[in-house]
Structure formats: C-alpha cells, structure tokens
C-alpha cells in the first residue's frame, strides 16, 4: 500500500534545549487509520504540528502525498485537514459561514452542496445558522471537524477529537471516521481514550518522551503482547498458594478467593488441563473459572512503564 505520509529521522528541539521529538521515522499508508498513543508530553501534538507546518522541525524530512512539507509546503498542506485539541472558533460566526470560510482559505471554489453533505454527516445541518457560542462543547468539536474536511483533504489529523465529548457523540464520530476511511482518507488519531484506538484503528503507534516505541498492526500487537488470564474462583479462601502449584507462577487475588494463571493462547499447550487437575490434587475446591484477555490499554501501560524504567 502506498505511503501517504513519510516521516524520516524527525527531531524537534525547542529553545532551552528541550528535545520534543528524538529521531522519529514513520510511514503512514494511504487510506489507513493510525492511532498514536502516548502520555501527556510524549510528543504527539508536536509531531502533528510538524507535519501540518505549525512547528518547524529542527532536522529530518516530512512528505505528504509526495510533497515535501518545507520545500513544497502549499501542495503538502492542501492535502491535510487538522482538527486541533483546542476549540479555537469565532464565537459569533454562524456554523455554515465558519465552514465556508475554511474552504475559501485553501482557494477552493464555493460548493454549498459539499458543505451540506459534510454538515449532515456530522449532524450539524440543523445548526448551520446557529452561532458558534450557542453550541455545546461536543457540537463545537464537530464544527472543527467540518472545517477540517471543508477543502476535501486526503489526510486528516484528529488531535484528541473526542475530549470532553459524551459517549453518544463519541460513537457518532467513530462512525464518521469509518466513513472517511471508506472514502480513502488517511486518518491519524491521537487519543487518551484507548478504547477509541481499539475500536477503529488499523495500526497503533506508541510514543513516549519523543521516541516512537513501536508501530504495529493492532490485531498483531494484541496477539503478540496481549496476555490471557485464567481466573480460578475458590470455594474457600487460602492464605497462600500451595507449594505443589509453584511451577505455574500463580497469583492470589480477591483476598485469597481466586487464583490467576497467565498463559499464551498461541502456544501448543496452555497447561490449563494439568493446572486444574493439580489444583484439585492440592485439596482446593473450584467454585468457578473465567478468562480475561488483556486490552490495548494493558499493553500501552506496560510499554510506557518499560520505557520509563
């Protein structure tokens, strides 16, 4: 698949010596959704700002659709839509006027039919004549998305797009993102809501302290780094794990009322059958058993902790 965005050895050092990006290299494929995860201060917004031309890189190169963002800035920027974290809208401007103005900034001809389609897609059509200051926070964020889409970009950056948005609006936005992907738009999403990445991303990137720790297919990442746990609920609590079960590296939880066994689902043998037999042989009575698959959040937290160590 063709790379729509190419980032090579990108560094950004601010006055005072703070290095926000430390040699980031990344290729983002045309038509994919890449979720970029990282704690506050990891470098997510700086990376987006560099690609969009808001921040000037200290070194390294960026191209969008084959256009260098420094030497061919206008052509590169024409391909990009940006939805920033901050709600930076003119409060007394009408919704339709705000979106129409953004389209005009890119030198695009007036196309009210297109803008109507965008506003309807974002459930904003009924609010087209409302002033921005009359809208809820969630609706204002939708206006930001509409403005970003007004010039028909092929790459869309969503920097924490659902921050402060209720669950219903968040899911509506996920549906909108899915439709944009179906239309061939490349989407880069930064988010604190890890379930968002788990729900809609094709690939996941993890960034911390200005370094890209990994970029991997979401399903492959979860299969490779995810863990599955067998939780054995006991009829009676135990103070400690019997010596006969030491080889299984079990954990006690819920005040000794449950044992946790971690295993690899891709292994030829999980060891579960032998474990259950040996639990019974050790004199413990099972009340119930259940399993838990580690989530993308578990994986993300583990990676960031490893980087901080």
From TrEMBL:
Q: Please name the source species.
A: Primorskyibacter flagellatus
The molecular function terms of the Gene Ontology recorded here are:
ATP binding; ATP hydrolysis activity
Q: Which UniProt keywords apply?
A: ATP-binding, Nucleotide-binding, Transport
Keyword field contains Transport: yes
Q: Does the keyword Nucleotidyltransferase apply?
A: no
User: Which protein is depicted?
Assistant: ABC-2 type transport system ATP-binding protein
* ABC transporter domain location: 5-234
InterPro entries for the chain: AAA+_ATPase, ABC_transporter-like_ATP-bd, ABC_transporter-like_CS, ABC_transporter_ATP-binding, P-loop_NTPase
């Amino acid at each position: 698949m063709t790379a729509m965005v190419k980032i090579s050895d990108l560094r950004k050092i601010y006055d005072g010596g703070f290095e926000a990006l430390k040699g980031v290299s990344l290729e983002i494929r045309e038509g994919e959704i890449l979720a970029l995860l990282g704690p506050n201060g990891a470098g997510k917004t700086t990376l987006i700002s560099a690609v969009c031309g808001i921040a000037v890189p200290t070194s390294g190169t960026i191209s969008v659709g084959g256009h260098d963002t420094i030497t061919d800035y206008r052509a590169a920027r024409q391909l990009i839509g940006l939805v920033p974290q901050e709600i930076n809208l003119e409060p007394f401007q009408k919704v339709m006027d705000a979106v129409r103005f953004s389209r005009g900034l890119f030198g695009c001809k007036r196309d009210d039919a297109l803008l109507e389609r965008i506003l309807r897609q974002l459930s904003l059509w009924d609010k087209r004549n409302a002033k921005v200051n009359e809208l809820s926070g969630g609706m204002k964020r939708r206006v930001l998305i509409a403005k970003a889409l007004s010039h028909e970009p092929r790459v869309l950056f969503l920097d924490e797009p659902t921050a402060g948005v209720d669950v219903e609006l968040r899911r509506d936005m996920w549906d909108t993102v899915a439709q944009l992907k179906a239309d061939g738009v490349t989407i880069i999403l930064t988010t604190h809501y890890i379930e968002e990445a788990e729900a809609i991303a094709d690939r996941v990137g993890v960034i911390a302290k200005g370094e890209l720790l990994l970029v991997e297919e979401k399903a492959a990442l979860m299969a490779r780094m995810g863990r599955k746990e067998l939780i054995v609920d006991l009829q009676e609590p135990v103070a400690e794990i019997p010596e006969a079960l030491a080889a299984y590296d079990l954990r006690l939880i819920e005040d000794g009322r449950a044992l946790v066994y971690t295993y690899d689902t891709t292994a030829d043998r999980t060891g579960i059958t032998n474990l259950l037999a040996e639990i019974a042989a050790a004199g413990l009575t099972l009340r119930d058993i259940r399993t838990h698959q580690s989530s993308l959040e578990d994986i993300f937290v583990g990676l960031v902790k490893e980087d901080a160590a």
